[in-house]
Amino acid sequence: MTLRLILGSDEAGVDYKDQILADLRQDPRVGEIIDIGVNRADEDFNKPYPYIGIAAGELIRDGRADRAILFCGTGLGVAISANKVEGIRAATAHDSFSVERSVLSNNCQILTMGQRVIGLELARRLAKEWIGYTFDPSSASAAKVQVLEDFEGAAAATGGA
Ligand code: RB5
């Protein structure tokens, strides 16, 4: 099954977003890519990073995409923003092991990276690695992720989320 993937960034991550978008458009593991911006021609090119993180999270929550790779200056702002959306697990990762574990341990739907933190070639490599991992629901990690889902479910039931 091919992935429906979102790519997004604020202005501080747009160069990496555009390069990795181009890479993944050639990748047979990716069936569809949604570019949620920003793009240099946009009137709102300087849109603050939370809009990008939240938009990606909502598209995944609503079943319109499977996963997202997001960029900002550090990767932190878009991750924090996406994590505000119910059911979303986003992680900033700039090394191969964390990229792997973000899926296999944490079942993250979103990877974020910082254009001001790592080199472009490493970011391109990590993006390709990340889309190759699939969470195993029969693994020991599943019960741990379930704790998060139960917490969110309980909060929603009491109006707290
Ligand atoms: C630039 O606005 C920078 O603060 C942003 O891209 C990001 O690094 C925030 O987390």
TrEMBL record:
Transmembrane segments: none annotated. Gene3D superfamilies: Sugar-phosphate isomerase, RpiB/LacA/LacB. The keyword Isomerase applies. Pfam families: LacAB_rpiB. Coiled coil: none annotated. Keywords: Isomerase. It comes from the Bacteria. GO terms for molecular function: isomerase activity. SUPFAM superfamilies: Ribose/Galactose isomerase RpiB/AlsB. The keyword Cell division does not apply. NCBIfam families: RPI_actino, rpiB_lacA_lacB. Belongs to the LacAB/RpiB family. This is D-erythrulose-4-phosphate isomerase 1. It comes from Arthrobacter mangrovi. The gene is derI1_2.
